[in-house]
Amino acid sequence: MAFSVVSKKSGKTYFLHGKEQELKGGQKVTLYYFAGAAGDNALDALPKGYIVSENTRTGLPLLKKG
Question: Residue ranges of the domains in the chain?
Answer without folding.
Answer: 4-65
